[in-house]
Amino acid sequence: MLSRPLKSQISICICIILFTAIIVMWTTFVFIYRKNTGEQTAAVYQQSLESIGQNITFLQETIYGTSTYLILNQNTQDILQFPESKLLNMDAAAKSKLDAASLLSFNTLVSNDYVSFVSFTAKNGYTLYVSRDGGTEGYPYEQIRNAAPYEQAAAKLGAPIWMIIPQDSTVVSAAGTRPKLALIRAVMNTNTYKPEGFLTICVDFSTIQEAFFAESSQKSRQTVFFITEGGTVLGTAETPPTYTYVRKRNGETSIIDPQSVSAGEYVRFNGETCIVAKYHIKSCNAYIIGLTRITDAMQNMNNVLILFLISAVCILLIFTFAAVFSGKLITNPLNRLLESITAAKEGNFSRIVDIRRTDEIGTLANEYNSLMNKLNYQINTVYRLQISEREAELKALVSQINPHFLYNTLDTIYWKCLNAGEKDVSSVIYSLSRLFRLTLNRGNELTYVKNEIELISHYVKLQKTISHNRFDFQPDIDETVYDFLIPKLILQPFVENAIVHAACNTSYTVTVSLCGTLTSEGIFFLIGDNGTGIDPAVLNSLLTDSNVFQDGSERKGSSNYAIKNIRERLKLYYGNTYTLTISSDPGTGTRIELTLPFEPVKQETGNAHTFYRG
Question: Range of 61's domain?
C-alpha cells in the first residue's frame, strides 16, 4: 500500500476506516434494534394476549351474573322446595308444566352464542338440561353430589367453581364431545341456606376460539393456545392443531410447560423461533399461551435494516468521492512542490512554489520558498566570492611572478637612502615593503591579529606621508588578541575609509582610533573617528549593501564596495555568528563596532596556521 500514490493511500485509508465504522455501526444497530424490537414486540403481543384473557374473564363474569339470576329466580326456588314424593308421582303433563318456567330461562341463556350446555339438578330428584353441543342428559343429584367438583361447589355454598372440561369428558354430561369451560355452582335454598342442587353452565372452546383466538391470530399473527396447568391443550387458532411440540430444551423437543415458560421468552415451534406471550386465568387455573414467529415480528426490522444498508452504501460512495477530492487538495500542492524540488536538483533554485494556503501545506511551501531563496542567495554569494578569490589569486600570482626581485629592489633602495642620510625616505620604503609582504600574506586568506595591526600601522604611516600629517592615529590593541586568526584586510578598509573620508575632507586634525580586546562573545574591535560623520542616506546604503540611495540616485565610490566585500567575506567565514554595526551622525564622527567569534567557521585548505584556543 505504501508504494501507491499518496492520493490513493488517503482514499484507501478513509474507505477502510469508514467501512470499519459502518460494520461496527451495523453490528451495534442490529444487536440493539433486534433487542429493542424483540422487547417491544413481546410487549405488544403480551398486551394482545392479555386482551384475550380479559375478554374471557368478562365472559366468565357475564356467565356468573346469569347463573346468580337463575339461582335466585323464584321458579328455581320453588323447584328446590317441591316435595320429592310428590315429584315422583307427578304425571307427564304436570311435569311438563313444571319444566316450562325453567326452560324459558334456560333457553334464553343457551340462545347466547357462547353457552353450549346448561344443567340444573335438585336434591329432590328434579333434573333439567339444555344442550347445543351434542351432549346428552345431565346427571341426577344423587349421582354427582359425591363427585370432586360438585363436593367443592357444595363446600363453597354457592360460590362459583370454574374448571376445564377436556374433550370427550363425561364429568358434567353423559356424552361430552368437545372441550369446555364450565361453571359449577351449588344452588342454595333461600329458606334453609343449604345447598339443595347444582347448576352447571358450559362454554364450548370452539366458541372461544372463534370469538377471541382467531381474530387475535389474524391481527397479530399469533398462534394462541388455551392450556391447563397440567399442559393439556384445549383450544388453538390453528387448524389442524400443531401444538404438541412447542418448546425445545437441550436439543430435545418436549411438550410445553405453561408454568415454566415466561412471557418474552424465545422458544421453538414447528421448527421456527417464536416469542412467547402468556396470560394466567386464575379462576380455572389455566393459561393462554401466544406464540409469534420471530420472522413475522422482525419483518419491519428487515425493512429498516435494508434502508440502513442502502444509506450506508450511499454514505460510503459519498465519502469515497470526498476522499478522492480531499486527496487531490493535499497531493496537488505536494506535486507542485515536488516539481520545484526536481528543478532544484537540476540547478534551478529560482523556481518558487505558488501555494496560497494557511494550513500546514501552506506553511511547508512558504518555508520551502524561503529555503530556496536563501540557498539561491548563498549560492550566488559564494559564487561571487569564488570569482573574487580567483581574481585575487590571479593578482597574487601576477604580483608573485618575482616577489624577491621586488623585495630586493625595495631593500636596495632602502639601504641606499639610509646610507645617504635620507631617513624619511628609507622609512617610507620600508613601510611600503612590509605593506606588500603583509598584504600578500604568502597567499593565505587568514592572518593573525598582530599581522593585521602591523599592516594598518604601515598603511597609516604611508597615508601620513601623503596627507602631510592631517590626522592622528591612536591604536589601543590588547595583546591577548594578537594570536587569534582573522580574515586578512578586515580592519584595514575601515581605517582607510576613516582617513580618506574623514581626515582628508576636514580643515582640522582628525583622530582615528583602533581598539581591540577580548569579550565573552569573542574578539571585539572598535574603529572610530571624530570627523564629519556620514550622511544618513549614505549610511543607509552602507547598512543595506545598496548602491542606490533612497531617492533613486546611484552611489559612486569604493568605500561602499569595500564594506560590502567585507560583509560577504565575514558571512562566508563566520556565517551569522559575527556582528557589525556602523553608527554616525553628521558632524560627530563615525563609530564602527565589530565582534568576531574566536574561531572562523570556514578553515582554509592547506593553511599552515593553527587556531589559538586561549
Answer: 24-207
Same domain, 240 and 197: no
CB contact at 8 A, 471 and 509: yes
Q: How many angstroms from the chain centroid is the CA of residue 129?
A: 80
* Rounded Cα distance, 320 and 158, in Å: 80
Portion of the chain with pLDDT greater than 90, in percent: 9
Whether the pLDDT of residue 549 is over 80: the answer is no
The CATH code of the domain that includes 87 is 3.30.450.20
User: CB neighbours of 1 closer than 8 A, spacing ≥ 6?
Assistant: 9, 12
Same domain, 114 and 143: yes
Residues 187 and 104 in one domain: yes
Mean pLDDT, range 333-344, rounded to an integer: 78
Tell me: cis bond preceding 5? Omega within 30 of 0 counts: no
The last residue of one of the domains, among 400, 431, 465, is: 400
Decide if pLDDT at 572 tops 80: yes
For residues 469 and 563, membership in a common domain is answered with yes
Residues 242 and 194 in one domain: no
Say what the pLDDT of residue 486 is: 92
Q: Which residue has the higher pLDDT, 49 or 247?
A: 49
Q: Residue 609: its pLDDT value, please?
A: 40
Residues 488/446, Cβ–Cβ less than 8 Å: yes
Q: Which CB contacts under 8 angstroms, 24+ apart, belong to 355-364?
A: 357/333, 361/330, 361/333, 361/334, 362/333, 364/337
Determine what percent of the chain is predicted with pLDDT higher than 70.
70
Q: Say yes or no: 184 and 234 in one domain.
A: no
3-class DSSP assignment, residue 388: helix
**First CA to last CA across the chain, in angstroms?**
59
Does residue 452 form part of some domain? yes
pLDDT of residue 101: 58
Domain assignment present for residue 333? The answer is no
In a domain? residue 362: yes
Same domain, residue pair 42 and 164 = yes
Q: List Cα–Cα distances, 277 to 33, 191, 194, 228, 258, in angstroms.
A: 20, 48, 43, 16, 11
254 within 8 A of 242, measured Cβ to Cβ: no
Instruction: Report whether pLDDT(550) > 60.
Output: no
pTM, rounded to two decimals: 0.44
Structural domain count, the chain: 4
Q: Which of residues 297, 332, 359 is at a domain's end?
A: 297
Distance CA 152, CA 168 (A): 22
Question: Which are the contacts of 66, defined by CB distance < 8 A and separation ≥ 6?
Answer: 109, 201
Kindly report, residue by residue over 470-527, the tens digit of the pLDDT: 788 899 999 999 999 999 889 999 998 888 877 666 777 888 999 999 999 999 999 9
Residue with cell 567557521: 601
> Does 269 lie in the same domain as 182?
no
Mean pLDDT (the chain, rounded): 74
Give the torsion sign (CA, 35, 40, 44, 50).
positive
Q: State the average pLDDT over residues 549-561.
A: 52
In a domain, 134, yes or no: yes
